[in-house]
Design a protein that fits this description.
- This protein is an alpha/beta fold and about 600 residues long.
- It folds into 3 domains: about 210 residues, no CATH class; about 190 residues, 3-Layer(aba) Sandwich (Rossmann fold); about 80 residues, ACT domain (Alpha-Beta Plaits, 2-Layer Sandwich).
- About 50% of the residues lie in helices and about 15% in strands.
- It contains 23 helices and 14 strands.
- The strands form 3 sheets. It has a 6-stranded mixed β-sheet, with helices on both faces. A 4-stranded antiparallel β-sheet has the order 2-1-4-5. Strands 12-13-11-14 form a 4-stranded antiparallel β-sheet, with helices on one face.
- A hairpin with a 2-residue loop joins strand 4 and strand 5.
- Helix 7 packs antiparallel against helix 8.
- The protein is elongated, with a radius of gyration of 35 Å.
Length: about 600
């Protein structure tokens, strides 16, 4: 009775840590339904243990528990103990992250409370001549009724004591029968456990809905954003003034400040995502991308601001938000014991797909993401890439208007990545919106119609890929191949180098090989570059040349430096300060040999 209830928390902790529990909430499960189904399954398993305990007592012919008057009381005690102690164990699923640790701790706690509370009150009952101790014992019994362990343990002791008194009367030929369900006997124990089951279950639901954490939310930052990029400011103004009524996803001053921290992890994000758009979120680890997704899905509370999905607010209409959202978390929220097909069938049912279409939808997800070969294998045997495919397929089930994909291609091979890209493109063509985070610039260029780069929780730039390259790029990359002036002679790149330095001052030579030169030219006039190269091609002995724009990787790296440099200064202020003012000591004179 101590070990079995503690075991019911193991799977709950595993679901919470793996994020499978939250993914079920996003797919349409309400907290009440989630905990009621868990309780129904656990009480059914607990009933098997109760039957085994009763059969053991019957097998050993213990009259104290198996007589015609005491057997119903024993069954009632055991049943209501499970009714009360199982919900009492549920809040512990929020306190532990390792299931085995939780099992040992809860089992020891149950043993300690059950044995000590029953033993203490039993020993105090023996001091019949000490009225003060007896009064204290009666009050202690009333207080300890809040623990189901005491109600069960003390009830079993009272049944045994009552049977001993009955046996004494029987020796003198008198019949002494006491109704075990009397209030002063077992009645109050059973009633207390019946009430505790409801109270502990309600307490668990309040914890799930963060009822006790609402007063501990951090204060939103008061400062105004200074030096904001022009495109980001225009988007903020458009959203705040009510523009973009057709936006399927709209963020308004969305902010998150974690308790105990002064700097926001997400700072006043404003953006609108239209139907048929793939919006990309770029940023180094810790920039706030996953925190933004967690707020949109209701995994963490919003400090200030709001966001709307298909017109529903994440603050007041979270259940409706979940109905219109698909979510692929950063880490795979899968049950290792279920197969890929069973995952898709489960989430299809949670999404409200009619039962006769569940198998068809599961087959669609398997074909869409290329999981045919592994569909009937348990998810625990999948490779990292196949787990990401399955997580993405779960996000697409039910055709939600908004799909949030948090680094969906991490760990995928190039073939699987291209397969997933085609799936995302088909979603966009259907008129749905996709919000994508990724560390792959190639992926963003292939999929995103607009993107934003996040640094320390804020948007530093926003727009189309070509617009960001033109605005924040470092000019153009010019590559030239020099031919020799005479047959058999070595090519002379000198004239070409002098030409670049004269006509494009400030240019940077990136590479120089035998007959190859590469320069980074800070010039906004592409026509002038081509005009000069074409008109001087023969005099400079240029065999061939190419001009390319600065890549998205370089734009991203330039913004990412802002966050990494600030972190270095914050973590190593002395070292950072030392680099600003370096004094080189003169070398000592050589010693005479």
């Amino acid at each position: 009775m101590s070990f079995i209830p503690a075991s019911f928390v193991l799977y709950l902790i595993q679901e919470r840590v793996s994020n499978a529990k939250h993914l079920q909430f996003v797919s349409g499960v309400t907290p009440g339904v989630y905990w009621l189904t868990n309780f129904a399954w656990d009480i059914a398993n607990y009933a098997v243990s109760v039957v085994m305990v009763v059969l053991i007592f019957i097998g050993f012919e213990k009259k104290a528990y198996t007589s015609s008057t005491n057997l119903p009381a024993l069954i009632a005690l055991l049943f209501f103990y499970g009714w009360a102690v199982i919900p009492m164990m549920y809040p512990a699923s929020y306190l532990f992250s390792v299931p085995s640790t939780a099992y040992v701790a809860l089992s020891c706690m149950n043993l300690f409370i059950g044995i000590n509370s029953s033993a203490i009150t039993f020993i105090l009952d023996l001091f019949e001549n000490n009225r003060s101790l007896l009064k204290f014992n009666e009050k202690l019994k009333d207080i300890l009724l809040i623990f189901p362990h005491f109600c069960l343990g003390r009830g079993l002791i009272d049944l045994a004591m009552n049977q001993a008194v009955t046996d004494v009367y029987a020796r003198f030929g008198e019949e002494h029968i006491t109704n075990p369900f009397q209030w002063e006997f077992l009645g109050r124990n059973i009633f207390a456990m019946a009430v505790e089951g409801v109270v502990y279950f309600a307490l668990n639901l309040l914890i799930q809905n963060r009822f006790f954490l609402s007063t501990w939310s951090a204060e939103p930052p008061k400062n105004h954003i200074e030096g904001e990029d022009e495109d980001v400011a225009q988007e903020r103004q458009r959203v705040m003034k009510g523009g973009g009524k057709n936006d399927i996803l709209r963020l308004k001053e969305l902010t998150k400040v974690y308790a105990g921290k002064h700097t926001p992890s997400v700072d006043k994000l404003c953006v609108g995502v239209r139907p048929g758009e793939c919006f990309g979120l770029l940023g180094v680890n810790g920039a706030g991308k996953t925190t933004t997704f967690k707020m949109l899905t209701g995994d963490i509370e919003v400090t200030s601001g709001d966001a709307a999905v298909a017109g529903y607010s994440i603050l007041t209409d979270l259940l409706d938000v979940h109905q219109n959202m698909g979510y692929c978390p950063q880490f795979d929220a899968l049950d290792e014991l279920l197969t890929g097909r069973e995952h898709l069938q489960l989430y299809a049912r949670l999404r409200g797909v009619p039962e006769e279409e569940v198998d068809m939808v599961a087959e669609w997800g398997i074909e869409k993401l290329g999981l045919r070969k592994y569909a009937d294998q348990s998810a625990g045997t999948y490779s990292g890439g196949n787990k990401r495919k399955l997580s993405t397929a779960i996000a697409l089930i039910g055709c939600p208007p908004v799909v949030l994909l948090d680094e969906p291609t991490t760990g995928m091979d190039p073939h699987s990545r291209r397969f997933l890209w085609n799936s995302i493109v088909s979603i966009i063509r259907e008129g749905r919106a996709v919000v994508l985070t990724s560390h792959s610039m190639e992926e963003c260029e292939a999929l995103c119609t607009r993107l934003a780069i996040m640094v320390k929780g804020t948007f530093k730039c926003l727009g189309t890929i070509q617009h960001l390259k033109y605005k924040f790029g470092d000019g153009y990359i010019v590559t030239m191949k020099i031919r020799p002036q005479k047959l058999g002679a070595a090519p002379d790149p000198g004239p070409a180098e002098k030409f670049i330095q004269t006509n494009f001052p400030g240019s940077l030579q990136r590479e120089k090989h035998y007959n190859m030169l590469q320069y980074q030219i800070s010039s906004s006039s592409l026509a002038r570059i081509f005009q000069l190269l074409i008109s001087n091609k023969d005099s400079l002995n240029i065999e061939e040349y190419s001009v390319s724009q600065t890549t998205l990787d370089q734009v991203f790296v330039n913004f990412a430096k802002q966050q990494t440099d600030d972190e270095d200064i914050r973590l190593h202020p002395r070292a950072a300060g030392a680099t600003r003012d370096v004094r080189v000591a003169p070398a000592p004179p050589p010693k005479a040999s």
